[in-house]
């Protein structure tokens, strides 16, 4: 992947100014360069990463489609927990740095929360989720037992009080409490939907023109994928991307922190990594798509494909890895398989619902 | 702790302007309020935090001093690894969000590195350490086998390549590769000192007036604590604190990102949490001090005690916890036990050494 990609993503803005357009075009040409040759990094548990060059044809190969049988949950291997040192020095050393852990391990602790319809990982520093993962299927979306007007926003009691995002932090902040896993994806159960209202599933999002508009249409795009794929997994989360300051030509990350005292970071961008599974049987092909959208007003006319980015760009920016165990042979490129575009429908209807619920 | 403390710390600046001075005074009065009554948060593994009010007299009690015997490494209990969900839904749920982990667990992974003289935890998003812990004793500082002129700065191969801070990111950035565990604390072995030169032990620091001056004097203060305490543990790391913009009265975090493309965050502040152990036997009293310094020129005349902050303020800002297993009965307040002040000595000498080494 071109080294410039992340910088280009960082420069992304929803504005229609010439600079932004140039940045987007430049990103898109980076993307094309990306497709011609790519690199998969194989991470050893305790050793350096070994970059393995992979021909692009193996990354997104094939064009097979399947019909959608009733989905079956896939058994999940338990990821290895991170190793924590017990002694920090050789017997000959005059010091023992690991002795500190007698007073407690500093962390970071990600406050993983496993709920019916989502799993979230929380960042105690930014008081935002790091990622939230969900699973939708034609069957799960067909059931309509939950209604968001019965749900209320909640502080997450699984997070220690001093690291919690608070309802009062959002109050009069000017930002929506923006669902990362959308409530509308969890209508199959009122209690599952209620659980999407924990603040550990929220980020401060620009309301009009983003959370209530383009972002909502993007969420709708994800749901519509279930008409083609029997099982769709989506990881969503915030990013804090640098932007070049023309005054000194340096790159700066700048984001607001809401609350009094300031507590919850306002992300500059949001990502979604989409895994559209062609089959619910183990080992099937997976259409992968990664998107980064600015936390800003985006005109509905903007093509969704403008926001497609290489997966590795999201990984570098987020400090996370999303598909380290997914062999390249099983990967396809979502936007080569299906049209990556939003449908602006039921606009007035949606506005009305949002006005009630937000 | 007063809710305003973190905001006030955030406003801290090394500048001598009236606003900064006001912020520091206000922080200091916050600190006094803090001492009169404080709260310890007991964190349950899977439940909500239970705030337990603790009288201030129990937090920093006693005034006992000890002489310094030869230190003995303390046996370290293994901290519990974080729980990672294996299935994300009840049997009745139509979805299984945990199925995503089949493709790999997203992280975050902290890249703990255990070296002879330090243990570091790395932030793959900011490409800085989260914390670095060291241990110094009168005996360890007495041995002088290592010399920094034999050491070279190194990219850390324990970190996957795509998340590494790189030497080229720092090159011509205008910032020092600022040791978090100082090389000078590890003279007891050349190889131990060499290991402090991994970039996983570095943050971009302002050179003149900070890393080569006030910060160096602060490191010297830590070493001098070993004349009174037989064992001193220090946790050091970066912070990214918000500052109020007078233009719109909102709080913003703003930091530079160095490298081309931008890769390594430039922290706005640095913390040290100091555990000065009165005894090397288990269960002894510990003099605790927490400090937050801006990554900026600080005049040598500025009292070190101006930068003392409540431990909880560092914890909230860093999203970490440093003393969750240290009972309040064992805690004393470092700056009540000893004079928290820098000594500006061997200035020309130090400058010469830095000019060579940095």
Automatic annotation (TrEMBL), chains A, B:
Cofactor: Mg(2+); Mn(2+)
Annotated ENPP1-3/EXOG-like endonuclease/phosphodiesterase domain residues: 115-329
Keyword Transport applies: no
Keywords: Endonuclease, Hydrolase, Magnesium, Manganese, Membrane, Metal-binding, Mitochondrion, Mitochondrion inner membrane, Nuclease
Enzyme Commission number(s): 3.1.30.-
Similarity comment text for this entry: Belongs to the DNA/RNA non-specific endonuclease family.
Molecular-function GO term, any one: nucleic acid binding
InterPro entries on file: DNA/RNA_endonuclease_AS, DNA/RNA_non-sp_Endonuclease_sf, Endo_G_ENPP1-like_dom, ENPP1-3/EXOG-like_nuc-like, His-Me_finger_sf, Non-specific_endonuclease
UniProt-annotated binding residues for Mg(2+): 211
GO BP annotation list: apoptotic DNA fragmentation; RNA catabolic process
Protein name per the record: Endonuclease
Record's subcellular location: Mitochondrion inner membrane
Predominant location: mitochondrion
Active site, UniProt feature: 179
Subunit structure: Homodimer.
UniProt domain DNA/RNA non-specific endonuclease/pyrophosphatase/phosphodiesterase: residue ranges: 114-329
Pfam families: Endonuclease_NS (PF01223)
